[in-house]
């Protein structure tokens, strides 16, 4: 399994004890160190030692830079040591950088800020004024410029524990955000598919959508039940209230029967019929599926739905065959579950 690789950058002789403690901490938490003094940087025959270090920084995930009072090895650049250029390489490559400064040097930097234009002053805690100039340069950056004072390796490891935990928590949050955005994208795709289904159902009627201005498209168990029992198996037809539902069913060929002229009227709700070749399709919808504002309730109890929504198909007698039995009931017990 891949592990985070942490490049440790500092001068060696004055900070070797800090480096050793830091190495133990990093390996204990299961991460990999990249440390020049441990032979963990591969050397290329076509590059200098310092250039190999800068290249390895670009392959690291995190850089921990430690600044003490010693300038260290010169990089060939008049302004920076090798460890300074390692830190600059990490910042240039947008790596996560943590920079720690010895507390004595950190405090002395305030004196440097007040006297940096003086040529007579000497600083007690650094062997080269370029250290203070480098600290000033990093602090002037707009991002990735945090510097933390330390007195011991414990200060560094305690700080890194908190930072690594924070980075992991942020990773989890970002992952959750990505999942949420992906879900929203999938929902948009589903809505587009539903629009295509509705477009197919309207069968060329350009005014179909206008008939459902009162509808809100949302998943509802009652509408799903009606959708399935009337034989629509591709996608779902969805409505939010009584008006939208009846307009939808009317468009599909169902009409509400007149209570005074039809034998199939129900005292508890509405009866809708559709004549289809030699069959009469009868859909009975109880008023209990609507609330006081005529919005469709979301009823998920199967037995209750069976009582509130009934459907049957009857064979219609063609004209001229009056002597035949009037109706032959066809059971709808085998309706598909929603």
Give a concise summary.
It contains nine helices and ten strands. It is α/β, with parallel strands linked by helices and 338 residues long. The protein has two domains: 5-174, Toll/interleukin-1 receptor homology (TIR) domain (Rossmann fold, 3-Layer(aba) Sandwich); 205-330, no CATH class.
Describe this structure in words.
This protein has 2 domains: 170 residues, Toll/interleukin-1 receptor homology (TIR) domain (Rossmann fold), CATH 3.40.50.10140; 126 residues, no CATH class. Helices cover 40% and strands 16% of the residues. The protein contains 9 helices and 10 strands. A 5-stranded parallel sheet has the order 2-1-3-4-5, with helices on both faces. The protein has a 5-stranded antiparallel sheet with strand order 6-7-8-9-10. α1 packs parallel to α6 and α2 runs parallel beside α3. It starts with a strand and ends in an 8-residue tail after the last strand.
State the main characteristics.
single chain, 338 residues, alpha/beta, Rossmann fold, 5-stranded parallel sheet, 5-stranded antiparallel sheet, 9 helices, 16% strand, rod-shaped
